[in-house]
Specification:
- The structure holds two protein chains of two kinds.
- Chain A is mainly α.
- Chain A has twelve helices and no strands.
- Chain A has helices at residues 2-29, 34-41, 48-58, 64-76, 90-125, 130-144, 147-166, 183-217, 220-227, 232-270, 275-284, 288-316.
- In chain A, helix 1 (2-29) runs antiparallel to helix 12 and helix 10 (232-270) packs across helix 11 (275-284).
- Chain B is 72% helix and 0% strand.
- Classes of the chains: A mainly alpha, B mainly alpha.
- At the A-B interface, helix 1, helix 6, helix 7, helix 10 and helix 11 of A face helix 7, helix 8, helix 12 and helix 14 of B.
């Protein structure tokens, strides 16, 4: 077990280095120049000298290899440098926006689990019944519906319903207040994007729960449990569900890591100033330091989640022992 | 199935026992599929409707999708404009019909190119093993760690927007996802005696991979392929919505949702509702068909 953990952690290194090289090269291949973007946005004219000065300021006058080593060395010290666009530390830019994105992601996960596991289980237990058909259709619809369009429809519905009920349309607030400060205002903001993302998330999880349950329900030990006359409830809860949940947990973990990507579009629709919006902004402004930091953040989240899921697997399932 | 077999045995009782699994004609197999998989048939029907719309857009669309009619801006659905018009007076139905072409071109090209590359890399990786397998796996890890939309964002920023670049942007992240699944099923096939036999016969690597291994990973591959078409259509819509994908005046569903759909959401909801419905129905159809295909191809699931 110990050797397995060390092995897995060591295998993360080439992935992270590869991702760092890839994002560094990609950013430098993009035509355009942050300094030109910055100076042009200030209005008025500027000359080559101003661009040179700006390059020196953000450190782009150094050889590319030096910039790369600086970037890697910064990553090792968890120092992401200064945002080339705003001049503030990258860590600050991310820290300001992380809470709202994280809250939406966590709430979406909770929504997904609460909907998916009971419905997926029922669907498998009553295979080919009308409940099963409905659940499967709803799940496939969840995968097929683009989340940004669902977001637009949700906003539309909120506007229409509140207009009909109170006489004046109501919109969820767009400025973030922390959950501890004003829970109602906070939840009335993050709830809508969370269910929008959560629908797709729960659809994927529901399908996995269903197929994993179907597989487990055909195992010999379930037949044994039935043969010895155990209550169906105990068979499902204690014998079937526990075993079927393994792949479901993996999926929840991986989907959570991918949520950052999914939030890019949803935050745009709901006008939320989170990590996803920052991502689009950073790429559009050619902000090398900020984009690199955000990509590395996503990759690290993904790799670490994968590791945790694998270790969790080994811990929860005594049959799995890695040498 | 039983009815067809019984008519055959009645017609030729002598050979029926020798040929219990004679392949049935395609038409009756298709009929069989429809009877067993009503949801899958519905999905197939939706896909066919979209295919017809995409192929015959010029004949079917009542208006030119790009011509503005400033006398008929943001008009509600009526007999003249069945789905209404947008803020530039363009007919929404015509734009959705032409949008089907864009969506299907992107969807199928990405799925086929990404899938085929993933198939070759996945089977090759499993067959050769060792250092090649190890290196490919690490490369896949890196590409997979980037969320699809982020990867696409990066590719589009490098090569610019437009249909061709969107296809490249969506295809690249699909390759490792396909290779992973294919590799897993190819690994178990590599140990099967007939591959050893083929090697003992002195066949070349290419022949063993293409003739002996690829056909045996076809079932998971086909299921993956249908999922990819749906994913690619959704990714294209997302990118176009963010302004990083297909550009005006090309009609595309995601783009239709970007251009003012939110601003007009309360006054002209049809602008926001119909293009999204087109995306959802298409991907819904493809997914239903893919699910039915999985049930039909997987012998473990067949008689449940």
């Amino acid at each position: 077990m110990y050797r397995y953990i060390v092995n897995r952690v060591l295998l993360m290194i080439p992935t992270l280095v590869g991702a760092a090289i890839l994002v560094f090269l990609l950013m430098r291949l993009i035509p355009g120049d942050i300094c030109v973007v910055r100076l042009a946005s200030g209005g008025g004219t500027f000359n080559a000298h101003a661009v040179d000065l700006c390059h020196a300021e953000v450190g782009m006058d150094r050889p590319v290899i030096v910039q790369f080593l600086d970037f890697i060395w910064g990553l090792c010290r968890l120092d992401f440098g200064i945002s080339m666009w705003s001049g503030k530390p990258v860590a600050y830019e991310i820290a300001v926006r992380l809470p709202v994105s994280l809250e939406i992601a966590l709430l979406a996960t909770v929504v997904a689990i609460l909907i998916a596991i009971p419905l997926g289980t029922i669907s498998a237990l009553k295979q080919n019944s009308w409940i099963d058909l409905v659940v499967r259709t709803v799940a496939i619809a969840g995968i097929a519906t683009p989340s940004f369009w669902l977001g637009i429809v949700v906003i539309l519905a909120i506007l229409d319903i509140t207009d009909a009920l109170t006489g004046s349309p109501w919109m969820p607030p767009i400025d973030y207040v922390s959950l501890w400060h004003d829970p109602i205002r906070n939840l009335s903001m993050v709830f809508w994007p969370a269910i929008t993302v959560g629908y797709r998330y729960s659809a994927v999880t529901m399908r996995m729960t269903r197929s994993a349950m179907l597989e487990v329900l055909r195992e010999d030990y379930i037949r044994t449990a039935r043969a010895k006359g155990l209550l169906e409830q105990i068979i499902v809860n204690r014998h079937a569900l526990k075993n079927a949940l393994l792949p479901v947990i993996t999926l929840i973990g991986i989907e959570f890591a991918f949520l950052i990507g999914g939030l890019v579009v949803t935050e745009q629709v709901f006008n939320i100033n989170g990590i996803g919006r920052l991502f689009v902004l950073a790429v559009q402004n050619q902000d090398y330091t900020l984009t690199q930091a955000l990509v590395m953040l996503t990759v690290v989240t993904f790799v670490v989640t994968n590791l945790i899921v694998d270790l969790f697997y080994a811990w929860i399932d005594p049959r799995i022992r890695y040498g | 199935m039983s009815t067809i077999v019984s008519t055959e045995t009645a017609a030729a009782p002598a050979v029926a026992d020798d040929l219990p699994d004679r392949p049935k004609p395609l038409a009756s197999r298709a009929l069989d599929f429809c009877r067993r998989q009503p949801l899958g048939t519905l999905g197939l029907a939706l896909v066919i409707v979209m295919l017809v719309a995409g192929l015959g857009a010029e004949l079917l669309a009542p208006f030119d999708p790009t011509s503005n009619d400033f006398a008929a801006m943001t008009e509600a659905p009526s007999w003249a404009h069945l789905l209404g018009t947008d803020q530039f007076g363009r007919d929404l139905l015509s734009r959705i019909i032409f949008g089907a072409r864009t969506a299907l071109i992107v969807g199928f090209t990405c799925a086929v190119v990404g899938g085929a590359s993933g198939l070759v890399l996945g089977v090759g990786s499993a067959y050769f093993g060792g250092a090649i397998d190890m290196t490919l796996q690490r490369v896949f890890d890196v590409v997979m760690a980037f969320p699809l939309i982020v990867m696409a964002l990066a590719v589009v920023s490098v090569f610019g927007t437009g249909v061709h670049n969107v296809i490249v942007a969506i295809t690249i992240p699909l390759i490792p996802r396909c290779a992973r699944v294919v590799r897993a099923s190819a690994l178990s096939i590599r140990e099967v005696p007939y591959v050893d036999a083929a090697r003992a016969c002195g066949f070349g690597h290419a022949r063993i991979i293409l003739r002996h291994m690829v056909p045996n990973v076809m079932a998971p591959f086909l299921i993956l392929l249908t999922a990819f078409v749906g994913q690619a259509i959704l990714a294209e819509a997302s990118l176009s919505y963010l302004g990083l994908g297909v550009q005006e005046p090309t009609p595309a569903w995601g783009l239709m949702l970007q251009g003012g759909a939110e601003e007009y959401a309360s006054t002209a909801p049809w602008i926001a509702v119909f293009p999204g419905l087109a995306i959802a129905l298409t991907v819904f159809g493809i997914s239903l068909f893919g699910d039915a295909l999985r049930d039909a191809l997987d012998p473990k699931l067949r008689d449940r």
